[in-house]
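Final report, closing paragraph on structural work. Over the funding period we assembled a curated collection of sequence-structure pairs, and we close with a single example.
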Amino acid sequence: MTTLRRGTRRMWDLMENGKMIRNSSSRFISTEPKRPGIQDGKNGEKIFKSPFLSTNYPTMPVHEFVWENVGNWGDKVALKCGVTGRRYTYAGARDASNWVARSLLNMGFKKGDVIALVLPNLPETAIAFLGSVEAGLTVTTVNPHYTVDEISRQLINAGAKGVITNAEIATVVLKAARDSLPSKSPFIVIDDATLPVPSGSIPFKDLIDKGKSLPPVSNHPWNIDDVVVLPYSSGTTGLSKGVMLSHRNLVANMEQVKASTEHGVWNETTETYQEIVPLLLPTFHIYGMNAVMLPNLRLGVQLITLPKFTPQGFVDVFEKNKVTCFFLVPPLLLFLATAPMVTKKHIESIHAMTSGAAPIAGSDVERFYQKFDIDQSKLKFIQGYGLTETSPVTFLQTLKSKKYASIGNPVCDTEARLIDLSTNEDIVTPGKTGELWVRGDHVMKGYYNNEEATKNTLTPDGWLKTGDIAYFDEEFDFYITDRLKELIKVKGFQVPPAELEALLRTHPAIEEAAVIGIPDERSGELPRAFVLLKKDKTLKEKEVQDFVKGKVSDYKELKGGVIFVDNIPKNPSGKILRRVLKEQNVK
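Its predicted structure, as stored:
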């Protein structure tokens, strides 16, 4: 029997005798299910292949992919604010994003121009994102909790030519934009019912209203390898860099994840059923963007947006809505497992949860299941691993076994290697640690305007060095043990030590400083500074913490404390040996 899957714009593989065959425009051929194992590469590499069946993905831009089947559920709620209750249906959201695209082009934006979205999770965030993409722009997503200096730095580095933000933070963003954008650059503000929209700015609602009467968006000469988003990541070392992700990267990764999970984990909307998913993970982060927001809109899911986390606001979403799926980071799971205000009635409709952004302890997952007296067959728990540079998902643990701490196997059409840090040779022995490398169509094009960093991260044959230390067990399931890159992760957010160290060195009493992350049950890690004072200078811990406070985002503050030392360990070339400090801290 030959079957054809639904999709008007998509070229699907045909099925014959249970196997996929290549049609004229197929990207991949699927074969029989593969067993996890190691295969030899062309140059003798030892490659871990994905055990999941290969998939075919379409050559279309992100916005067309997301909206492809919108006609099937146009009257369903697409986006609902978890605070105010304002909402958009799928038909309304699709129209609004198209009208935003028309207005942006009418303002003078050109294909490839960079527009900055400095936004929390609002219903309009997805509309602004997809409208900008439909206009042919490159979207750089900026952390809305950033300070003026941090926002300004990203706007300048990305070469932004306009900004979309919300009323609550518009004053801060406007200060950054004045010194960072070309003169007369559009400054667009979403009225989120918190504060007045600043005078002189463009109300986001005007883009929707005026776009209705503007000419349709012309057919752009789309290339799926065009850069569509420019999120910022610290990569393996140093300060944040723009990660160039293309339409191909994002679409491929959405399809890779779908093909690597069993049927029924995340369900497409029908006339009688719709998944309900809280969107708490920030969409400026690649996890919230391309693992939650975009793929769930593709499936017709109802997304309930939360602009910030408050315990009561978070619980209210579960109180008022029958949440069916949930995407989280380890601190959120710990909150569910320990907060008395969260009861079984709040999670009884959930059938799947996915954790990512940071390693999770198996004991924390067990604690969750024990608190609510539920088993794995009733509520699937999925562990994901990825990076901004990989769009983001590269590994999934679908937990056919209860290996809660494992990241599982490479997602479909993804290859992996494990490289010995001493010999630079491939590791083929279970239990032995090395740096994890990955390769696939979801791997970034490179770092924006940073050729050196790109060369240090991507090999000529396409392998991305993750900077994470891992090992695999006898069943070829992988585990992350440490970060070679020494990034600190606070509630899933990246904190580059180099940024805090550079800031500390500007203090007139500080000679040198080193920053590491220390374990914290609720936040995952907290930044701790080791400070070497200048001769005859004195400081107290709180003085150092207060010096940093206000100059960086809240999660970057030195909440792990300050330790005064007589020397900062360095190697012969002068690089700070943070690993030595970590070892000393443990002792």
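The longest helix spans residues 90-106. The radius of gyration is 24 Å. We thank the funder for supporting this effort.
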